[in-house]
Write a structure and sequence with these properties.
The protein is about 40% helix and about 20% strand. By secondary structure, the chain is an alpha/beta fold. Helix 2 runs parallel beside helix 3 and helix 6 crosses helix 7.
Amino acid sequence: MKQPSKGIKILLVDDEPNILQFLEIGLINEGYQVSTAQDGTEALELAESFAPHVVILDVMMPGMDGFQVCRALKDARPVAVIMLTAKEEVDDRVRGLTLGADDYMAKPFNFGELLARIQARLRNQFPHLLEKVSVGPFAIDSARKEFRYRDRPLDLSPTEYELLKHLVLNHGHVLSKSAILDQVWGYDFGGEENIVEVYIRSLRDKLQDREHRVIRTIRGAGYRVDPI
């Protein structure tokens, strides 16, 4: 599902024109502003003028390789770097992450997965750009504090809103009661963990999730949202 771009800029760096064209068309169709470079020197020059939020960066390039570009980008500005490479060796992944890369994908890759990883990086590093976020059937408008499920507005209390938002933005991950309390109620909350169960029950009622297929209980571990 397309996300409102809010001026989100992505710089693509790869010496293979076919890959650049494929990614550029796909990302523009998703609403992003896109610029491309075919070598490290051009990438660093564009980064100065274009000021990208996310850089999709190939490792194996002539001249300045992706590792060098990654280090220079991270030294110069706040930016999320996703390394995109044909190499799958652990040493290369470790080197890239050590130099500041935020994520690592090996070619061939799935475009849908790349989109998900871009969204994850934006949520973590540039959350102000994602005032409106869509995750499966959920739509979150952070500016208005509004939640919609399958195009139906949800009448949520402030705590229900924050809890559901936390669960949805971390969809696919199991969140323990203690972790939920820390993130939603705060570290200094002095109440019982059972308060989480009360609010989960209320959210399920409002989502009409009678069979617990949206907010799943993972016995002995916590809760996981599956945005079906």
